[in-house]
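Researcher: Next sequence.
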Amino acid sequence: MRLRQVPPGALPPDQRLALACACACDTAIIDAAAAAIPDADWPEAARLFDHHFLAPVILSRLHGAHDPNVAARLGPLKQAVSGRLKQALMLQATMRALRDDHLVPLGLSYAMFKGLTLGARYYGSPSLRVARDIDVLVAPSDIERLLRSLMGAGYDLIGRLRVDRGSGQPVDHAIAIAHLSKEVALVSPGGVIVEIHHRVDASGDAFPTSGLLARSDTIEIWKRPWPVLSTTDLFAYICAHHAQHRWSRLHWVLDLSMMMQDPSFDEEAVRRRAADAGFGRVVDAAIRLPEALSAIVEGRQPSPPPMASAFVADCLAHLDPAR
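Model: Next structure:
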């Protein structure tokens, strides 16, 4: 598959800026794209960046912009980021309570993944990586104990999973759902969604939970130790996860860009893990995605292999949320 060439002028400057930041392009390219956005278009541009969960990173990249006109236009973007920061603070508080009141007292083996912990390890700050929920992986044998602890403390099944309360206890419904699915989505007393996973893939065969937990790393966030999936496991998993969602949000491309820049990223180890999981072609294509999109931003013609070309096409098709 050969991609249709997309010259820089064919992309609206706000879309070009979003792509440039997702691919971690050079500062000069990012500044030039920002400078090309007309004053009147910044509110709509901020909505685009927020839709793709890039607003905090774009604001961070533009904070020291050389063009004073760009700095003067950032009001709508700052407003979008302010709303995301409030959401991040609620997630942080819920994560602390989840760890301190449930996971640690129960003595569970667990690992956080995606979301704020991904931001803490690879973005340099939890709040730079927009998240809408909390994901935690526990051993299948521990899922019932954790659900009973959480629901006893006021957590409830997310609305779409609730059933008639007259037909049994909510915790029994949650446990039944856990046996039929790889995760259970709960809502904390503060309204934060917490997804309790005992598998990260449908069958548990591609990424066995026991191996993921045994290979987990520990990082420090908010002066607390947090077990997280290893970079090798997480990268292989998120490539498969994001591909399932057709790369419809650009922060998933940014995840790849940031992780590949981290010292813990070992491409050969990732490829081996992906091959073992049966996702070798998917991971190979995902690794090529940021560079292929960077080429489009810079006006070059990328020529990635077929699956990577399909991923690029997915990203371009989803650039404009109105489409």
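Model: Residues 123 and 258 are 6 Å apart (CA to CA). The longest strand covers residues 133-138.
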